[in-house]
């Protein structure tokens, strides 16, 4: 007998931060180290906002590197976990599509793991960049890492067949089957993911999406918001294969499936 997956607006990983870290381990803290390398390379000051901070492990790494860090996320579960397991930064609730934390200006905003791409519309993207502009000091940096919309121009290898992943957490074996497809009208990469577990719980189907931003489009909107793009490239980075390592220099291409951005605020208004 086939069991139909239940649809839910919840997110198994976001609602269960320990499960998230089990599914996406980063024992070497590559994401945090890459972000710190960018901040040092381009001379950022010590005050950093990690927007879309998730479990807080990258914010905590930046804190240990000597920075004064605020981690912000929309998930109360993630924030609670971050405070308990990755202390050091201040953690606050905020929506990256429009935020005002009421704090003194930051020297840099960090936005990792495609969090920026939850801005699905132009209005939401403008809201994010306007918020960054308001909270940054003149000359402050925006450092971001995300999927690359240009990768899907003529390429279908991530779309042709579902991908499966499995891992075990606290004695329960989890398996996910993920299908991606491009919604060209909305310029979104839509994801359907079905979770199964060997603990007897019924399957759960979850749907989400990322905005597909193209390098030249991103350059244009950043310039419109007063930013100068210092670097925009496909790798190496924390989610590339092979991943970034200390001493790696940015590529001169923006062709592969990840996109890495460093921009400086030049017109503060």
UniProtKB/TrEMBL annotation:
Q: Which GO terms describe its biological process?
A: methylation
Q: Which domain of life is it from?
A: Bacteria
Cited InterPro entries: Methyltransf_25, SAM-dependent_MTases_sf
Locate the Methyltransferase domain: which residues?
Answer: 48-140
Q: Does the keyword S-adenosyl-L-methionine apply?
A: yes
Tell me one GO molecular function of this protein.
methyltransferase activity
SUPFAM superfamilies named in the record = S-adenosyl-L-methionine-dependent methyltransferases
Q: Which UniProt keywords apply?
A: Methyltransferase, S-adenosyl-L-methionine, Transferase
Record carries keyword Kinase? no
Alphabetical list of CDD domains matching this protein? AdoMet_MTases (cd02440)
Q: Which Gene3D superfamilies does the UniProt record give? A: CAC2371-like domains, Vaccinia Virus protein VP39
Q: What is the name attached to this protein's record? A: Class I SAM-dependent DNA methyltransferase
């Amino acid at each position: 007998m086939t069991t139909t997956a239940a649809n839910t607006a919840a997110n198994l990983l976001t609602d269960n931060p320990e499960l998230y870290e089990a599914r996406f381990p980063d024992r070497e803290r590559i994401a945090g180290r890459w972000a710190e390398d960018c901040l040092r390379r381009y001379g950022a000051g010590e005050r950093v906002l990690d927007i879309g901070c998730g479990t807080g492990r990258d914010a905590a790494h930046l804190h240990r590197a000597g920075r004064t860090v605020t981690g912000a996320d929309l998930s109360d579960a993630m924030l609670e976990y971050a405070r308990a397991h990755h202390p050091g930064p201040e953690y606050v609730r905020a929506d990256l599509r429009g935020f005002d934390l009421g704090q003194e200006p930051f020297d840099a905003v960090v936005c990792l793991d495609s969090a920026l791409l939850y801005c699905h519309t132009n209005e939401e993207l403008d809201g994010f960049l306007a918020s960054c502009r308001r909270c940054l000091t003149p000359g402050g940096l925006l450092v971001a890492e995300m999927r690359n919309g240009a990768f899907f121009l003529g390429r279908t290898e991530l779309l042709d067949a579902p991908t499966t992943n499995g891992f075990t957490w606290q004695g329960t074996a989890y398996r996910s089957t993920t299908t991606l497809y491009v919604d060209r009208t909305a310029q979104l990469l839509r994801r359907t993911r079905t979770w199964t577990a060997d603990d007897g719980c019924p399957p759960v189907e979850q749907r989400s999406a990322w905005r597909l931003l193209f390098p030249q489009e991103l350059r244009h909107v950043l310039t419109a918001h007063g930013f100068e793009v210092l670097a925009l490239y496909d790798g190496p980075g924390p989610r590339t294969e092979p991943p970034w390592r200390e001493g790696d220099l940015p590529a001169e291409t923006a062709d592969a499936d990840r996109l890495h951005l460093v921009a400086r605020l030049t017109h503060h208004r």
